Amino acid sequence: MGDTGGRPRVSPTAPTDPKATAPMPRLAVYALVVCVLAVAAAVVSFVQGSWAIGVVWVLLTGLSSNMTWYYVRRGRQEKSVIG
Questions:
Q1: Whole-angstrom distance, CA of residue 20 vs CA of residue 18
Q2: How many Cα atoms occupy the beta-carbon half-sphere of 14 within 13 Å?
Q3: Are 67 and 16 in contact (CB under 8 A)?
Q4: Model's pTM, two decimal places?
Q5: What pLDDT, on a 0 to 100 scale, did the predictor assign at position 11?
Q6: In a 3-state reduction of DSSP, which class is residue 14?
Q7: pLDDT (0 to 100) of residue 24
Q8: Which of 43, 18, 38, 32 minimizes the C-alpha distance to 69?
Q9: Nearest of 37, 40, 32, 33 to residue 70 by alpha carbon
């Protein structure tokens, strides 16, 4: 039929050690990469004297930073619900 978009099933043999650290969710990693690249682009824009473009990069940095925290927090919540 196809994917219903539900949460993935957890096998009964999955480790449930609360001290085990799960890797960062993939979307959080992508948002973090965008954040770092936006910071670099903002610095370059300001150094070259393009203030308007620099401000746009700073705004994108803030957005991607918030997305990173959101996806990290969401991953931790899903882990605590499942585990």
A1: 5
A2: 12
A3: no
A4: 0.68
A5: 53
A6: coil
A7: 78
A8: 32
A9: 32
Tokens of 36: 């770092």
- The Cβ-side half-sphere exposure at 51, using a 13 Å CA radius, reads 0
* Matching residue, tokens 């499942």: 82
38: which residues sit within 8 A by CB, 6+ positions away?
Answer: 57, 58, 60, 61, 64
- Output the six-digit token pair for 65: 């930073």
**Maximum separation of any 2 CA atoms in the chain, in Å:** 58
Cα distance between residue 69 and residue 8, in whole Å:
22
Collapse the DSSP code of 18 into the 3-class scheme (helix H, G, I; strand E, B; otherwise coil) and give the result: coil
Which mean pLDDT values do the consecutive 10-residue runs of the chain (83 residues) have? 60 54 83 97 97 96 96 89 75
Q: What is the pLDDT of residue 25?
A: 87
By three-state DSSP, how is residue 19 classified?
coil
